[in-house]
Structure formats: structure tokens, C-alpha cells
Amino acid sequence: MATAAAQHTARTPAHDARGGAPDTDAHQRAFDAAIAADERIEPRDWMPDAYRATLIRQIAQHAHSEIIGMQPEANWITRAPSLRRKAILMAKVQDEAGHGLYLYSAAETLGVSRDELLDKLHSGRQKYSSIFNYPTLTWADVGAIGWLVDGAAITNQVPLCRCSYGPYARAMVRICKEESFHQRQGYELLLALSRGTPEQHAMAQDAVNRWWWPSLMMFGPPDDESEHSAQSMAWKIKRHSNDELRQRFVDICVPQAESLGLTLPDPDLKWNEERGHYDFGPIDWDEFWQVIKGNGPCNEQRMAQRRRAHDEGAWVREAAAAYAAKHTHDKEARRG
Ligand code: BYC
């Protein structure tokens, strides 16, 4: 792989041979060669406008999902059944806020501001993951989210560590490590319930029944309806298609469900010797598109809570900005 300095020169030929206007064809060729060679694109490299726009769309929606995703689980912090469970859950919810911060920072390297992105979320112009529009009805839902939702997130996000855009790929490395702890805490919580009283076992089963299908929808529409997949895969932003990752997730979950002593709510789930994968039943895509359009069980509640939190946090942002300005002013005064 070329050094950062060499890459920068190759990909940012400022002028053509006659010293005229920037040569976009040369830029495009350098960009295509970098993608073909599996090199990383960095913020100061030239990139096609559509590549930049796709990254902003995906990273922003990913960031929004992380911070909206804090809500369903935060709902249980005050009612966690023990101090240990409460401490774990608080740490997990805080991690999600941190993931949002890494991702907004990665998006900002592409020339957008965090304010702009939050405005798009609050006005409904950018999406967040469908999964967070479902309610957390019982304590077992905290376990089901950890096991299934974080499990689906890891399956989707590990390949993003090899995404062609450097800042996104690097943010994903740390996020995946934390998601792995989240997934294990969910599994361990469900295992405790599954091995508990008959009522606890039933509560765990009910949570898995409700979260299974929405978790499969997290991977996005089927490949033949996925508007962006082909281009994003050609640019090596996405490394696998939505259906490939969904299948990988199903194959991982079936033996884990067996170890948990819980069943997955799909009568068509069956090992297919020929394919070397589990077959599974049809997904209700009408439900998916309805949730995305804003008609899921909790869309309104989630957005109202997000806007309220943003408004109530205005004084914190103002205080932080005033403190930063004072700090800069004092530093300059000391320099004389
Ligand atoms: N929900 O062409 P497609 C977490 C949209 S947070 C909503 O396949 P693409 C966690 C899609 O955006 C995990 N919308 O799109 C946090 C597009 O609409 P736009 C979040 C969806 O981008 C807290 C349209 O449908 N993970 O783990 O090629 C607590 C057509 O789709 C969904 C990420 O964000 C959906 N499920 O592929 C616990 C991962 N699926 O943008 C846990 C990063 C699709 O044209 N993102 N859409 O308006 C990705 O990997 C890809 O963006 C996706 C979609 C696979 C999600």
C-alpha cells in the first residue's frame, strides 16, 4: 500500500499538464485505482460527489440509529432487577451514545456539520434503523436486543471495518469491539431467564418471538429491491449484500437459540444440506416499509423524545461553546 503522502499526490493532481483547471478524469482514474487496489480513501483525497453523498447518507443514518437506539433500552434502566444489571445496562446505553459521536465525527470529515445532520434527523429527512421503532415491553427485551439486535449489528458492521473510506472503517473497529460485549450481555441475560422460573422462561421466549423478525429486517430490503447495494459494493463501502449478511446472521443464531433453550419463531427454519445454510420463512416486507415510512409502533414516540432531548440539551451545548471560546481566548491572552 502506498504511503499517505504518495496516495495524496496521486489522488489529488491539482492541475493538468498545462497547469490549467483540475483534471477530473485523472482524479477519477486515481480514485478507481485506489478502490481496485483495496486502498483507503481519506478525507483530503479527491472522491466522486456521489461517493461522498452515499457515505454521508449511510454514516449519518448509522449515527442516528445509535442515538435513537439508546431509547428502548434506557426505558429499563430504572427498573433493572439488580444493581449489577443496572450498571451493565447503563454502560451499554452510554456506549451507544459514544458510537453516535464517533460516527457523527466520521461524517463531519466529509464536509457536513453535526447540526445539519441532526436537523435532517429531526425533520425526518434522514432515516434511522427500523428496529428502534418497536417497544421494549418486558425486562427480557433488554436481553433480546443485546442478543439479536446487537448480534445483527455486529454481523453487518464487521465487514464495514474494511470499508473503503478510512474514518468510517476505523470508527467501526472500536464500535464492533463494544458491540461484541453488548451481544454477550444480552445472551447471558436471556440464558439466566431461560434457566429461571417457568414465568421467566416464558418472558424470554416472548421477547425472542417479538424481536426475531424485526432483527432480520435490520439488514435492509432484499437484494433485488436494494436501491444502493450494487453501487456501494462496487465502491467497497458495503462488502456483502443485504441478503448475504441476513443469511449469515440466521446461520449464527440457530445453534445459539438451541443453547439458550429457546425457539426461533419460524416454522420454516430448516438446515439445507445442499446450500449449507438454514432456510427460513418469508419476511413481512410490508411491515418493514410501513415502519420506515413512520408507521411503526413507536416512531412518533422516538422522534418526540429525540427532539425533546435535543431542545433540553441546548443549554449544555451553549455552555460548552462558551467554555471553549473562553479557553481559546485565555490561551491567546497568555501567548500575548
Ligand atoms: N432501517 O438500498 P438499501 C445498532 C433504507 S445501530 C431503516 O439496501 P443501503 C444499535 C436505506 O437507508 C445499527 N432504513 O440501502 C444501536 C435506503 O433508504 P435511503 C445501525 C433502512 O444503505 C443502539 C433504503 O432503505 N446500523 O446496532 O445500501 C443499540 C433502501 O435500502 C433499513 C447501520 O446503520 C433499516 N433497517 O443498505 C443497539 C449499519 N434498511 O437511505 C444497537 C450501516 C435499509 O435511500 N448501514 N434502509 O433513504 C448499512 O449497512 C446500510 O445502510 C444498510 C442499508 C444495510 C442498513
Which features does this protein show?
mainly alpha; 65% helix; phenylacetyl-CoA 1,2-epoxidase activity; disordered N terminus; Ferritin-like; Phenylacetate-CoA oxygenase subunit PaaA; globular; binds benzoyl coenzyme A; 336 residues; PaaA_PaaC
Task: Please outline what is shown here.
This protein has 336 residues and is mainly alpha-helical. It has helices spanning 4-11, 24-36, 49-68, 70-74, 83-108, 114-122, 140-157, 166-194, 198-217, 229-234, 242-260, 285-295, 299-312, 314-335, and strands at residues 270-272, 277-279.
Descriptive account of the structure:
This protein is mainly alpha-helical and 336 residues long. It contains 14 helices and two strands; from the N terminus they run H-H-H-H-H-H-H-H-H-H-H-E-E-H-H-H. It has a two-stranded antiparallel ribbon. Strand 1 and strand 2 form a beta hairpin. The longest helix is centred in the middle third of the chain and has 29 residues, at 166-194. The radius of gyration is 23 Å and the shape is globular. It starts with a helix and ends with a helix. Residues 1-9 and 13-20 have low confidence and may be disordered. The structure holds benzoyl coenzyme A (BYC). Residues 57-58, 61-62, 65-66, 69, 96, 127, 129-130, 149-150, 153, 156, 217-221, 226-229, 232, 238, 242, 292 line the site of benzoyl coenzyme A (BYC).
